[in-house]
Amino acid sequence: MTGCVSYFLCLLLFLFLSSSNTLSSPSVSYPLCHSDESSALLQFKHSFSIDNSSDYSFYYGCPPPKTDSWENGTNCCKWSGVTCDKMTGHVIGLNLSCGRLVGRIHSNSSLFLLGHLQSLNFSYNDFRGSAIPSDLGKLVHLANLEIIYSNFSGHIPPDISYLSKLDSLILSSYSFDALRLETSTMKRIVTNLTNLKELSLDGVDMSSVHNPLSLTNLSSSTSLSLRFCQLKGNIKDKFFYLTKLKSLDLSDNENLTGFLPKSNWSSSLEYLGLSSTNFSIDFPHLTKSMKSLNTLYLGSCKILGWNPTLLSNLTQITSLYLSFHNLGGQIPWSSLNLNKLIKLDLSGNNFSGQLPQMYSYNLSKSQPIVEPLPLNLEFLDLSNNKLQGPIPRSLFQLVNLGWLDLSSNNLSGVVELYEFSKLTNIQYLNLSFNSLSLSRSKIFLNHTLPSIWCLSLSSCNIKEFPYFIRASKYLYTLELSFNQIEGNIPNWLWNVSRDSLRYLSLSHNFLTGIQQLPWKSLFYLDLRSNLLQGSLPIPPPSTRIFLVSNNQLSGEIPSFVCNLNSIEILDLSNNSMSGKIPPCLGNFSDSLSVLNLGMNKLHGMIPLSFERGNSLRNLNLNGNQLEGSLSQSLLNCKKLEVLDIGNNKINGTFPYWLGSLPMLQVLILRSNRFHGSISGSLKSKLPFRRLRIMDLSDNQFSGNLPSNYFQSFMAMMDAQREKMKYMGDDYYQDSVVVTIKGFSIELVKIQTILTTIDLSKNNFEGEIPELIGKLKSLKGLNLSHNKLTGSIPPSLANLSNLEWLDLTWNELVSGIPQQLTEITFLAVFNLSENRLVGPIPRGNQFETFENSSYRENSGLCGFPSSKICNSSEAPQPSQAKNLEQKNEFDFWKVAAMGYACGLVFGISMGYVLLSKEMLVVMIRRRVGGERWNRVLRRFQG
């Protein structure tokens, strides 16, 4: 996921820097400005601070602050970003885009004294989450209002609708939920702003707007963009009948449905964006009727009637995006208008074959004629396909190429990196996760890529840092993970892009040493899975994500971590860190989301004290030598989803108060010194209602099983209703160790459909409660090594999703309920070391369990035990019919089970569960042939 985030930020930066008009200066004509307006501008300037190191300034490549030229006693009409009327001298335009402004605009701001303003641009600044001022409605002469990614939040003021002269309204939000638009405001905008030609509300939350797409009053509109607006429902055909519309973008509204109209469609449309929607696109109709299209975004939607030859109908196309559609076969180069094409995105499909030599095809003749490719292509993304073979040398002739992504394919061969130096305009280059080998050719030592700002060469068989980046001043992302780089980081690298580098991934290499990192704006640092030794590396204070797990670091956690005031994710797990946990780690209430110190040698008490309003989502202290009790300050962690303190020396009674945490999904207390009953005093009506994984094993808990909790585990009752996804966020995937059939298995990603309870190795007594059968989403249940009595409740048969059940080493009596054969996903089943009697049930999965599942239950009889049941005990014939056929079916079902459930025991678990004889019969039937019979005979012998 981190790659996705890096990709998104790089794409945003690429698109911004590729725009030739965003930061253009207005035409220069200098009348004398009015003194009162000059004073108002200076007062406005002084109400803000200027932050040259802010994220906004860096993300958007902002030039020096425009307000630097604003000085008292000078003509304000000459100031950068200020435009005056040539006749009257009044200030009519204010463009502070990328002004590096930090602060808030208050209602008494001097800005509103500029009553003649016709154009106002506040884009790419930081207004600290304040609301868009309603007093903008007083600037009644405004024709153009543009506010893009400026950290405004809250509701868009209805006063915007007073600006009846608006020709262009652009209000795009930096965060997807920062700006919101209500129904009443939307209606007023549509009703009053009838002169609008351009309307853009990208990123504005419009989820509460009723019928948000009834915009037919905007008959003058030529451009409409509503991306990332959380629009939903079926779009009306009449919405498309804005006859003057040339640009329409509704992308990234996943719940928006509809069809393109079959008739009366405006033929003037030049730009159409429907990516990441549920729109159904009649591709033959689109390519036939929309002849004027030059830009088409159709990624991740529903294309009907796909035929690659139809692409030749799009004769004016310059930008084509058809990503993530599972399109297969060869890339249809001959159907693309390569003479005009500037941007091409076919990523996330199943295109196969080799990349051809980059030539165009002249289709004006009776047969295609191969011609040299025009040097127009600026953007090429073929990532996440099945392309094979080498990278053709002709690709390096695309000298205008600024973005090249060939990652996650099957490309092979040796790449001479100096070839890329011919791409003098390259800014984004991603060759990661292929089978390529990057050459160390000495000729490359003389070449550089000075314009590069995103470079990803993960899994490229690199053995040293690429020397060609030594002169790169604007590098933003550097990904070199999963390579063979060893030793220390070279000295020359410390001087590369010291002011700009934000994202650095060097994980899964063989690095042994690293010094204090010099990149002062670093945001993301990934050093996982290397051979780093000695003390913890020191990241810059700007670091927000610091991942250094799976190394050989030792010593105490240094005090400098207390200086990481913006840290969000800190993962130091699987090292040899010793000493005590710094108390300051509990003080990062505003930022810290993940704290993973697991699998180290930390000791002493847990000193963390969490304040109210903290952001902690994952706390992992597993596998240390910590002692004492848990602090009830964890109750302040209202966002906590994962709490893992297993394998320590923590004591005390069960922390029942954790049940009131509203988001808690994973609770691991295993292998500690907890004791007493776990029923406790319930502080909330439904304690642990979101809990999915509960592991209290190997403690000293006693008393009855917690029936009061079982009836409130709502997530274990209806988890199947949710879509399968992984726990975590864009930068960090949660992981957990679960016990399956006595084996500890690390799930490096936790699926939200995984639900387990492990209460083994305690002193629980009494009967297994019937109501445990309500937990129908359970995948695993382990109650072994306790003192449970009574019989096995038939209600366990209701656990239809159960895959493993362990009740060994208890004092259970009576028979095995026949109803348990209804659990058809059961792959691991163990009832040994109890006092069970009677016949072993037959049918379904019970035909796959061997005698080891029932050992030391002397009263059991029937298959697979050696004890024969008497006539009164024998199972009914219907239970054992079609045994061989059932065995075969169950084997392949069990083999697929690992994939279906996200667990790590697919085919191998199938082998464990079935006897050697069963496997022989099944494989012979599936494969057959004398040759296989010989192999199987050797296997039997």
Describe the structure.
This is Receptor-like protein 6. Pfam families: LRR_1, LRR_8, LRRNT_2. It is found in: Cell membrane. This protein is of the alpha/beta class. Among the domains are: 133 residues, Ribonuclease Inhibitor (Leucine-rich repeat, LRR (right-handed beta-alpha superhelix)), CATH 3.80.10.10; 225 residues, Leucine-rich repeat, LRR (right-handed beta-alpha superhelix) (Alpha-Beta Horseshoe). The protein has 11 helices and 62 strands. It has a 30-stranded mixed β-sheet, covered by helices on one side. It has a 10-stranded parallel β-sheet with strand order 37-39-41-43-45-47-49-51-55-57, with no helix packed on it. Strand 2 and strand 3 form a beta hairpin. It is globular, with a radius of gyration of 33 Å.
What order do the helices and strands come in, and which of them pair?
Blueprint lengths: L1 H17 L16 H12 L2 E2 L4 H5 L22 E3 L6 E5 L5 E2 L16 E3 L22 E5 L5 E2 L12 E5 L6 E2 L2 H10 L5 E3 L22 E3 L6 E3 L12 E3 L3 E7 L11 E3 L3 E6 H7 L5 E3 L4 E3 L14 E3 L6 E3 L12 E3 L4 E5 L4 E4 L6 E4 L6 E3 L4 E4 L13 E3 L4 E6 L12 E3 L4 E4 L15 E3 L20 E3 L6 E3 L14 E3 L4 E4 L10 E3 L6 E2 L10 E3 L4 E5 L12 E3 L4 E4 L14 E3 L4 E5 L12 E3 L4 E4 L13 E3 L4 E5 L12 E3 L4 E4 L16 E3 L4 E5 L2 H4 L4 H4 L17 E5 L2 E5 L8 E3 L4 E5 L12 E3 L4 E3 L14 E3 L6 E2 L13 E3 L4 E5 L19 E3 L21 H19 L5 H7 L2 H12 L2 H11 L1
Helix pairs in contact: 8-9, 8-10, 10-11
